[in-house]
Design goal:
It is a single chain. This protein has 141 residues and is of the alpha/beta class. The chain is 38% helix and 18% strand. The protein has one domain. It is built from six helices and five strands. It has a five-stranded parallel β-sheet. Helix 4 packs parallel to helix 6.
């Protein structure tokens, strides 16, 4: 994944996407001149929905997915989500559960874009961190 567009996704656990949401997201990641990697946090709700959607895309379209699960056991309930969020944005695989690291082709590469769907405090944290890191943000609400 040498020259790819890295898109990180954030959104709420209770969020139920609509067909229009998914079509808008597909418009963002489709039709690119280079390959696309979508980073998902692995939480219930939007993360699962986007991860599943990208898994349905024909591999010949050069759109891949990566699962960046928070390490709740190592970092605890209050810190694991924010630590994982910053890891997804920076490309730091030391912040996620070890089982996911083998499936990460974009380690040490920062995100090029954050797509932010409606959500709660975790979504706000990820969106704020992206802004602080200078990563462009596409708000989906």
């Amino acid at each position: 994944m040498k020259d790819c567009l890295i898109v990180t996704v954030t959104g709420g656990r209770a969020y139920e996407s609509t067909l229009a949401d998914m079509a808008r997201f597909m418009a963002i990641i489709s039709g690119r001149s280079r390959s696309v990697v979508v980073r998902c946090g692995g939480a219930k709700g939007l993360d699962e929905q986007i991860y599943d959607l990208v898994g349905l895309i024909d591999p010949s379209r050069n759109i891949r997915r990566e699962l960046w699960r928070a390490d709740w056991d190592r970092f605890g309930r209050r810190k694991a989500g924010p630590i994982r969020n910053r890891g997804m944005l920076r490309g730091d695989t030391s912040t996620i559960v070890r089982q996911c690291v083998g499936g990460i082709a974009t380690a040490n590469k920062p995100a090029d874009l954050l797509v932010s769907f409606p959500g709660g405090s975790g979504t706000r944290d990820c969106t704020g961190a992206a802004g602080a890191l200078g990563i462009p943000i596409k708000i989906m609400y």
